[in-house]
Write a structure and sequence with these properties.
alpha/beta; Rossmann fold; 3 domains; 22 strands
């Protein structure tokens, strides 16, 4: 066995009220992928930030090739060959793609100025090597969609001749083809002797790409091993400290009359002729590949964008929302996919985030009633298993999964008629997913109507009463979720392999 390229021993990091890392260990081997697995709040993000110089650990030793190193800044980590691809892309919309890729390490002329011609050529080379030659290095980044922005983030990391590559949920916003391309790239990196830390909640990805795994729980090192020698159930039990046999709750669906009806809804560029009904107590799943138009339809229903044609009926009343405020007042709320940018106010504490749309319930004569505010928030935080040191903790300090729970709690506290969940468990660990799914089932059982946009087939099949499949801005089929509905059938419909008549 080769020696580890990077070794962490006894690493600890504390914040006010919480010990994020408690004497954890990690080893990364050249030419291998090590999966870091754990629930939200397990310490994964803190570890990544400690490895990339954003945080300085309180205790512990970091060694590269057996020699202790200090990482006082991201620049220092960068100089030692450590690079990271984060779940939420850290890029600059107003710069070109080439400028984003080579920011901080652009090729220079003999006069010390940026060599723009070489920068563009080197950008093209990196993108071509990744199978992303369709991206023009001279284009402005903001012109790209989220999937292509993620590819640019990957290209930026690949432009650095790094020996240690950290990938934090790199596939979260990628299509099936883009995921395949990324995994091909990872194989290339492995063959080049790179040591890769791969953080993902998707077990199919972990078992497909990783050789080793390390499990954290509640900031502590729980165990490690070889993927080929370990069953998924064993890893899950290590993650959560308990057996999670039933991920998707068995809910008794009592489907009532239509609550929301959409007829021939169209948008000039995003979708066309969208028609469906949502019933009381129903979970209606929306499935499709990246770029199919699912999120764009939901944004139109929530008043973020204005459709060019069609009608929306809510409880037998035609509605026309000019803003999200109109939709909220009517009883439609939307949990967006981009929680960090659109879902939470990162500089406000948890309790203010959750209570923000419900201030009318927690105020008297124009004055906030703090006790009532905390009672409201504590109820939903408990039911969603929100993990935080206190409700006064700023939302920006939470893990991605816990931020998502804050957004869900915020809207559920308004007691809506219809809740739209866009990728509700994106980046959330298996234990927390179970809590969200259980709560979704409870809400439906209580008569709330739920629209769930998801790219995860097990989630679509496990939670939906019916499934709407979209492709290229159109509804291609609507399925009743029964024993005959399979993941293969949904993928074929979404990819245009098997066009079925609208049922």
């Amino acid at each position: 066995m080769s020696e580890p390229l990077l070794t962490l021993t006894g690493l600890s990091k504390s914040f006010p009220g919480v010990k994020a890392l408690d004497s954890v260990s990690l080893e990364l081997y050249p030419g291998q992928v090590t999966a870091l697995i754990g629930e939200n709040g397990a310490g994964k993000s803190t570890l990544v930030k400690s490895m990339t110089g954003i945080y300085q650990p309180d205790e512990g030793v970091i060694k590269i090739r057996g020699k202790p190193v200090s990482l006082p800044s991201p620049h220092a980590a960068f100089g030692l060959g450590i690079t990271a691809i984060h779940q939420e892309t850290v890029l600059f919309d107003e710069l070109t793609i080439g400028e984003n890729i080579f920011l901080g390490h652009a090729p220079k002329t003999g006069f010390g100025t940026i060599d723009w011609s070489r920068l563009r050529q080197k950008s093209r080379d990196v993108l071509s090597e990744m199978g992303a030659a369709h991206i023009n290095p001279s284009s402005i980044l903001k012109e790209l969609g989220i999937a292509n922005k993620h590819l640019v983030a990957v290209a930026r990391a690949m432009s650095i001749k790094a020996d240690i590559v950290i990938m934090d949920e790199p596939t979260a916003a990628l299509s099936h083809k883009e995921i395949k391309d990324l995994f091909d790239l990872i194989e290339h990196l492995k063959n080049s002797g790179k040591a890769i830390l791969f953080i993902s909640h998707k077990f199919d990805e972990i078992y497909r790409i990783a050789e080793r795994f390390t499990v954290f729980r509640d900031g502590q090192f729980i165990g490690k091993g070889l993927i080929d020698d370990t069953d998924q159930s064993q890893i899950v039990q290590m993650m959560v400290g308990r057996s999670v046999d039933q991920i998707y709750p068995q809910k008794k669906a009592t489907i009532g009359s239509p609550v929301l009806s959409v007829a021939h809804l169209s948008h000039p560029t995003e979708f066309n002729d969208i028609s469906f009904a949502l019933n009381k107590g129903e979970i209606l799943g929306f499935y499709g590949l990246v770029g199919s138009g699912r999120s764009e339809v939901m944004q139109a229903l929530f008043g973020i964008t204005t459709p060019s044609a069609g009608t929306v009926t809510l409880q037998d009343t035609n509605v026309d929302f000019n803003s999200p405020a109109d939709a909220i007042d009517a009883g439609i709320v939307y949990v967006p996919e981009e929680r960090g940018k659109q879902g939470v106010v990162v500089d406000l504490p948890i309790f203010q985030n959750v209570s923000l749309p419900s201030l009318g319930k927690t105020s008297r004569n124009g004055f906030l009633q703090l006790a009532e505010e905390f009672t409201l928030v504590r109820d939903y935080a408990t039911r969603l298993d929100l993990r935080a040191a206190s409700l006064s903790q700023h939302a920006g300090t939470l893990s991605g999964g816990n931020q998502q729970k804050v957004v869900v709690a915020k809207w559920l506290a308004t007691q809506p008629k219809v809740i739209i969940l866009d990728e509700p468990t994106k980046g959330i660990d298996i234990g927390s997913k179970a809590a969200v799914h259980e709560f979704m089932g409870d809400l439906a059982s209580q008569g709330l109507s739920v629209i769930m946009v998801s790219s995860e087939l097990p989630e679509i099949l496990g939670m939906s009463d019916r499934v709407v499949v979209m492709r290229e801005g159109l509804i291609v089929d609507i399925y009743t979720n029964d024993d005959a509905l399979t993941s293969e059938r949904l993928v074929m419909a979404a990819a245009g392999i098997n066009d079925g008549a609208l049922s």
